[in-house]
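Sample 3 of the quickstart, ligand pyridoxal-5'-phosphate:
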Amino acid sequence: MYLDNSATTKISDEVLEEMLPYLTDEFGNPSTLYSIGRESKKALEEARQRIADSINAKKDEIIFTSGGSESDNLAIKGIAFKLRKKGKHIITSEIEHPAVKESLYFLESLDFKVTYLPVYENGIIKIEDLKEAITPETILITIMHGNNEIGTLQPIEEIGKIAHENGIIFHTDAVQTFGKVKIDVEKQNIDLLSVSSHKINGPKGVGAIYIKKGIRLIPIIHGGGQERGIRAGTENVAGIVGFGKAAEIATSKLDEHAEKLSKIRDEIVEKVLNTIPESYLNGDVNERLPNIANIRFKAIEGESLILLLDAKGYQASTGSACSSNKLEASPVLTALGLDPVDVHGSLRISLAPESDEFDVDEFVDVLSEAVQRLREMSPLWNQELDYDGVMCKKHDDCRMC
Ligand SMILES: *Cc1c(COP(=O)(O)O)cnc(C)c1O
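Result:
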C-alpha cells in the first residue's frame, strides 16, 4: 500500500496511453515546420490549453518547465533579477519547499533581504505579520498554497490582495494543491504559480509556471527561443502531453476526489488519535489539503516506524522526500514550535485518488502495533510514563525507572 503520494504518484493508465505516441512515432521537434513537427506543436499547445483551463488562465500565460523546482526557481530568481533596481526585499514563509527556500538563500548571498514569516502552531501565516513585513523595498511575496509535509493551506487570495495593494508581485508554489484544491489565478490574485506533473499522476520531469500577462521576468535557462524565450530547450513533448492529460483528469474530478480522500484522511486521523495514546495531528485541522495527514507520536523515532510499516507493506514517510535522507529535523515541523524529539516522531500519510481500496482499520492496527513495539524499546517512553507517576509496562527491566 503506497501512502506517500506527496513525494510522487503513479502515472495513470490514461496518461501513459496518451503519451505513448509521442515517445514513438510522433517524435517531431515542435519547432520544425514539416508535418511531424507540426503534430508535436499541436499536442504541446493542446496540453498548454488544458493546464490554462484548470487554473482559469489564458493559454499564453503558461510556460512549460522541467517541474516544480524549476518553476519556483524561475519565478523567484526571475523576478528578483528583473526588479533588483526597484528593491531587494522578498517575503516568504518558514515552511516553504526547498526549491523556494534554497532559491531565496541563493538570493541572500547576492545581497537580497528575505523575511521568513512564522507559521505558528497551526502551520499558517498571520496576515498581520505579512502586512508588517512589507517595506518600500519589497518586490516579491512568495508563499506556498498547500504544504507538502503537513498539508496546511495558506490564505493565498488575501495574500495576493495585499501584495497588489502594495504594488508587489505574488508567487505561490501550488505543486501540492494543483488538481486537489480549486485554483483560480484571477480570483485569487496570483501573478506567478508553480505546478508539477508527477504529483498528480503524471510523468516526472515536467511542470509549468503561470505568468500573468504583463509580468516580466529574466529567464534562468537561455538558449533557443522556445516557450516565448522564457524557457529555452527542446520541449519534453511526451511529458507535457501526459501532464496535460493528468491535469485534465485531476481538474474534472477535483470535487469527487477531494470528497473521497478527505473522508479517508479523516477516518485515519480519528482512528489513530483514538487508538494510539499520545498521538497528535500536526497542523490546522480545517485549513488543509484533502489528501495529507501528518501525525506525531510521543517517544517514537520516525525512521524506525517507517521501516516497520514498510515491512508490513505500507509505504509512508516522515516528512518530505527531499529531506528524508538527511538526518536533520524537519524545518516544517520545527516551525510549528514542536520539541525536536516530537519532530522526529512524526509520520506523513498522503493519499491519491487510487487509494480507494485502503483498509483503514487494518492500517491502524499495523501502525498501532508498530508504535507499541517501538515504545516498549524506548527509554524515552518509559521515562515519560515513570515521570508521570505511571509504572511502565516493563518496570522490572526498565533502565530509566
Ligand atoms: C514536489 C514539490 C516541489 C518540487 O517539484 P518537482 O517537480 O519535484 O521539482 C515543489 N514544491 C512543492 C510544494 C512540492 O511538493
